[in-house]
Design goal:
Oligomer: heterodimer
Shape of chain A: globular
Number of strands of chain A: 10
Strand content of chain B: 15-25%
Structural class of chain A: mainly beta
Number of helices of chain B: 22
Order of helices and strands of chain A: EEEEEEEEEE
Strand content of chain A: over 45%
Largest interface: A-B, 63 and 88 residues
C-alpha cells in the first residue's frame, strides 16, 4: 500500500492485498460505524477483532474500493479522541492519524483504495 | 522591486538547497512514499487547467511543490551516500545497487531543477485589473534589464547546484528573472489571504461565523453545525500544517506539513457535506438545523460548596461527567471564584498528566484497562482558599493560611456518562440503527458528489485524483485548496472563511447536487434528532456521589462534613433535580460535654436551563435547605454564641447568566428564618463569578 494523497486518505494497493484498518478510542467502548463499498455495519468494540476491519482489494469487484468510517462522540463535553491506523499486507507504508473530537458530535473518515 | 526580491528568494532557495546537498545533509530523510506522493501531486497539478486569472497562482503552487520535491530528493540522496560509505567494505555486493540509486536520484534532482528554471522562464502572466486573486500587474512585466541584473547576481549558480546540479547556466538564470512573476503569490501567501479576507471580492453576503478558537472549544453549544463543520476543517488543516506532538509511533502525521490543505474526502468529507448543505438549504426550514445553535442543556457547576464564603450555592451538585470527563481529558483544573473564596477542583489523573506535560501517547488509549486509573478517574479533589485570610487580606496568595477547606469526592454512580453500562444496550441499538443509516447516507452522498479521475486503462495510478462532479463546486474547491495550501497555519481560518463567501450559489450548482444534498440533510437531521433523544434519556440518569470536606476555621473549631449527593434528570432530562444529605462533626470536641456531631442537613435544588437567543444558555434554579444545629455555633473569633442551637430553613432562587465563553455570573436571592449566628429572619442577595480554565487551556491545546 502506498499513499497517493494523504489529505484525501487516498491509497493505492495491489490487487489481492489485504488492508487492515484499526481504530482505537481514548474512552472505550468504540462507537464507530463503517461502510465498505456499500456494505454497512458496526466495528466491533470487544473481542479479538476489536477495532479492526480488513479490506481485501479485489479489482474485479471494486476499483477503487471506498471505506467510510463514522466516529461518534456521545459526550458533549468533549475530550474524545480516536486513532486511525491503516496498513497494507504488502507494505511498505502504514498510515496513522488522530481524530480529535474538538466540538463535534460525530465525524467521519473517507478512505479510498485504488487497486493497481 | 518586489519582483527582484522574489527572484532573489528563489535563487537563495536553490543555492541553499544545493549547498546543503553538497555537504551531505541527512536530517529528516523523507520516505519513498512521501516522495512518490509529491510526484503524483505535481503530475496531477500539471494536468489541471486553472481557470482564468489563476494561471500564475497555479504555476506558483506547482513550483513550490517542485522545490519541496527537490529538497526531499536531495535528502534521500545524502542519506544513500552516507549509507553507501558505511557499508562499502562490509557489504560490497550492495554497492552497485546503491550507486545506481544515487545516480537515479541525481538525475531526478537535475530534471526537477531544470524544470524549475524553465518554469521560471515561462511567459509572464498578464493580470486582470481589479481581481484581487490575480498576480500584481507589475509581476508580469519583467524587463531585459531585470533579467540581466538577476543573471549577474546568479553567477554562483553552478556552485549552487552542488553535486546534483551543474546544469545551471547564466542563460537559464536570466530567463528565471524574466519569469519571476511565477513566485509572486508564494512569497507572501498571507497577503493573498489578507486581500481576500478584506472582502473586496466577496460575491455573496458574508456568513456570521464564530471565531474557531471558541467554536472548537469542547462543550460550547451556542454554535451551529455549520460553524462546527467549518471550524473543524480549519483546525484539522491547521493541526496538520503545524504537526501533532505525539510519541506514538503509530502516528505518521505528527511531523509538520506546511502545505497541508483541505480535502474532498479524507477527514473532512463529512464536514464538506454539511457545509454544502448549509449553503444550499440552510435558509430553508428543513435546513435550519444546520445553521442554528442547538437547544440549551443542563450545564456543569464549578462553584464550591455552600459552606464557603460568599457562595451562591445552597446545594452541592453531583459529579457531573463534564467536570470529571473534561478535567481528565484536558489534564486541567476547574477553577471557580465565589465571593472571597477561590476553589480549585481537579482530578488526579488529569493533574499527573498536566505535571508531566504529557502530549498525547498510547497510554491515553490504555487508561481504561487499568483498575487504578478507572478508580482515580472517579475521584476528584478540591481546595478552597479564602482570600480574606493570611497576612495580606484581599490578595490571593494560595498559602496554607488561606486554605479554608479541602475535599475529596468519589463518584459511586454516574449514569449520565453515555458510556455507563446501563446505556450500552441503547448505544448499541443507536449504532446499529441510526449509526448505520447515517454512515450509509454520507457514503452514498460522497459517491454521488465525487469521483476518481485518471482511472482509464493504462494511466499511472499515482496520477489519479479525487474531484467533485459538479463543475462549479470543483472550481471553487480547486481554488480554495490552492489558497489553503499556500496559507500559513495562522491564516487558514481567514482564508477558508473568506472563500466560503465565494461559495457557488444555488443556481450555479447542478440539480443533481441539490438532490443529493437534500438526501444528506434529511439523513443527518434524523441522526441528530435520534442522538438528542438518546442523550435526553441519558440525562435522566442518576449521579450518586460522596464528598468529604474538611473546613478549616481560623479561631473556630475545624469541622468535617460528610455529604451524600444524588442527582437525577426530570422532565425528559430538560431539568435537573439534586438532593443532599449531610452531617458535620467537630474534628475535636470544642468543650467538655459537647456533642461530637455539630449538625445535619437536607437540601434540594431544581435547575432548569433555558436559552436566550443571541445571548446564551441561562439556568434558573430553586433550592431549599433544612439544617438542625445540635450545638451552639462558634463564631469566627472562637466565641460560642448561646441559644444558636435549633432549626434553620433557607430558600433560594438563582439565575446563572452566561457572561463570556467559559465564564458565568450566578445571582441568587436567599430567604432564611434565621442564620446560624442570629435568630432573626434574613433576606440576602449574592452574586458570584465562575471561570472555567479548561476553556482557556483548550484554546492552546488541540485535545
Amino acid at each position: 500500500m502506498t499513499i497517493i494523497d494523504e489529505d484525501e486518505l487516498f491509497f493505492a494497493g495491489e490487487n489481492g492485498e489485504t488492508i487492515t484498518v484499526t481504530v482505537k478510542s481514548t474512552t472505550p467502548p468504540l462507537l464507530v460505524n463503517f461502510d465498505l463499498d456499500g456494505q454497512t455495519g458496526v466495528i466491533p468494540s470487544t473481542g479479538p477483532q476489536s477495532g479492526a476491519l480488513t479490506v481485501k482489494l479485489d479489482q474485479s469487484k471494486h476499483d477503487p474500493s471506498t471505506l467510510t468510517l463514522v466516529f461518534h462522540f456521545p459526550n458533549a463535553s468533549g475530550g474524545g479522541l480516536y486513532k486511525l491506523i491503516v496498513t497494507g499486507s504488502k507494505g511498505p507504508t502504514s498510515f496513522g492519524t488522530l481524530i480529535p473530537q474538538l466540538n463535534s458530535k460525530v465525524t467521519a473518515a473517507f478512505l479510498t483504495f485504488d487497486v493497481v | 522591486m518586489r519582483l527582484k526580491k522574489l527572484s532573489v528568494f528563489i535563487f537563495v532557495a536553490l543555492l541553499l538547497t544545493g549547498a546543503l546537498d553538497a555537504q551531505g545533509r541527512q536530517a529528516g530523510v523523507p520516505t519513498d512514499a512521501e516522495v512518490e506522493q509529491l510526484r503524483a501531486t505535481i503530475r496531477r497539478l500539471e494536468q489541471t487547467t486553472p481557470p482564468p486569472n489563476y494561471e500564475a497562482q497555479h504555476r506558483h503552487d506547482v513550483a513550490a511543490l517542485r522545490l519541496s520535491l527537490r529538497d526531499k530528493l536531495q535528502a534521500q540522496k545524502a542519506a544513500l551516500a552516507a549509507y553507501l560509505e558505511s557499508i562499502r567494505s562490509a557489504l560490497p555486493e550492495r554497492v552497485p545497487q546503491i550507486e545506481k540509486d544515487i545516480t537515479n536520484k541525481e538525475a531526478e534532482i537535475k530534471a526537477v531543477t531544470d524544470t524549475l528554471l524553465s518554469g521560471l522562464a515561462a511567459p509572464p502572466t498578464t493580470a486582470t485589473p481589479g481581481d484581487d486573486h490575480a498576480v500584481d500587474a507589475s509581476a508580469g512585466t519583467g524587463t531585459p534589464q531585470d533579467a540581466g541584473g538577476t543573471a549577474g547576481s546568479g553567477q554562483a549558480t553552478p556552485g549552487g547546484q552542488g553535486s546534483s546540479g551543474g546544469q545551471g547556466t547564466s542563460g537559464g538564470l536570466a530567463a528565471a528573472a524574466a519569469g519571476v512573476s511565477l513566485l509572486q503569490p508564494a512569497a507572501n501567501p498571507q497577503s493573498t489571504a489578507g486581500a481576500i479576507a478584506s472582502g473586496g471580492v466577496a460575491a455573496q453576503k458574508q456568513d456570521k461565523l464564530g471565531p474557531c478558537v471558541e467554536v472548537n472549544s469542547p462543550g460550547t453549544n451556542q454554535f451551529s453545525e455549520y460553524e462546527r463543520a467549518v471550524c473543524r476543517v480549519v483546525e484539522l488543516v491547521r493541526m496538520r500544517k503545524v504537526g501533532t506532538p505525539t510519541s506514538d509511533p503509530d502516528i505518521t502525521t505528527s511531523a509538520p506539513r506546511p502545505n497541508a490543505t483541505i480535502a474532498i474526502r479524507g477527514l473532512q468529507g463529512f464536514e464538506f457535506q454539511q457545509i454544502i448543505a448549509a449553503k444550499l438549504i440552510g435558509r430553508e426550514e428543513r435546513g435550519k438545523f444546520l445553521v442554528e445553535a442547538e437547544e440549551a442543556r443542563t450545564d456543569k457547576q464549578v462553584e464550591g460548596g455552600p459552606s464557603n464564603s460568599g457562595t451562591t450555592s445552597l446545594v452541592v451538585k453531583g459529579g457531573a461527567p463534564s467536570v470529571l470527563g473534561f478535567a481528565v481529558s484536558n489534564g486541567a483544573l476547574v477553577q471557580s471564584q465565589s465571593g472571597t473564596t477561590v476553589t480549585f477542583r481537579g482530578n488526579p489523573i488529569g493533574i499527573i498528566k498536566l505535571l508531566n506535560n504529557k502530549t498525547f501517547d498510547e497510554s491515553y488509549f490504555e487508561d481504561e484497562k487499568d483498575p487504578t486509573t478507572r478508580f482515580l478517574k472517579k475521584t476528584s479533589f478540591s481546595v478552597s482558599f479564602n482570600t480574606d485570610r493570611g497576612q495580606t487580606p484581599g490578595v490571593f496568595t494560595a498559602d496554607k493560611q488561606q486554605v479554608s477547606a479541602y475535599s475529596v469526592r468519589y463518584e459511586f454512580i454516574n449514569e449520565r456518562d453515555p458510556r455507563h453500562r446501563s446505556h450500552q444496550e441503547a448505544l448499541a441499538r443507536f449504532l446499529a440503527e441510526e449509526g448505520v443509516n447515517l454512515t450509509g447516507t454520507i457514503a452514498q452522498t460522497m459517491q454521488a458528489l465525487t469521483e476518481v479521475t485518471g482511472a482509464e486503462a493504462g494511466a499511472n495510478p499515482l496520477d489519479r485524483a479525487i474531484r467533485f462532479k459538479d463543475p462549479a463546486l470543483q472550481s471553487w474547491f480547486q481554488e480554495t485548496r490552492a489558497l489553503i495550501t499556500a496559507a500559513a497555519a495562522g491564516d487558514v481560518e481567514a482564508t477558508f472563511k473568506s472563500q466560503l463567501d465565494k461559495f457557488p450559489v444555488d443556481k450555479q450548482l447542478t440539480t443533481e447536487t441539490r438532490d443529493i444534498i437534500d438526501h444528506f440533510a434529511e439523513g443527518f437531521s434524523g441522526y441528530l434528532s435520534a442522538r438528542n433523544k438518546l442523550l435526553d434519556e441519558i440525562a435522566k440518569g442518576k449521579v450518586i456521589t460522596f464528598e468529604y470536606t474538611n473546613n478549616r476555621g481560623v479561631n473556630a473549631p475545624d469541622l468535617s462534613n460528610f455529604r451524600f449527593i444524588a442527582e437525577t434528570g426530570i422532565f425528559g432530562g430538560k431539568a435537573d433535580l439534586t438532593a443532599n444529605a449531610s452531617f458535620t462533626i467537630f474534628n475535636s470536641r470544642p468543650a467538655a460535654g459537647t456533642n461530637r456531631v455539630r449538625d445535619f442537613e437536607f437540601s434540594g435544588q431544581l435547575d432548569k436551563p433555558f436559552k436566550v437567543s443571541g445571548v446564551g444558555n441561562f439556568i434558573f434554579s430553586f433550592a431549599g435547605k433544612y439544617e438542625r444545629a445540635l450545638e451552639n455555633v462558634t463564631a469566627l473569633d472562637g466565641t460560642v454564641l448561646p441559644n444558636t442551637k435549633g432549626d434553620i430553613a433557607v430558600g433560594q432562587i438563582k439565575l446563572t447568566i452566561p457572561f463570556l465563553d467559559g465564564m458565568k455570573l450566578p445571582i441568587s436571592l436567599s430567604f432564611a428564618n434565621r442564620t446560624e449566628l442570629v435568630r432573626e429572619k434574613e433576606v440576602r442577595g449574592n452574586f458570584g463569578f465562575t471561570f472555567d480554565i479548561d476553556k482557556i487551556l483548550a484554546k492552546f491545546k488541540p485535545f
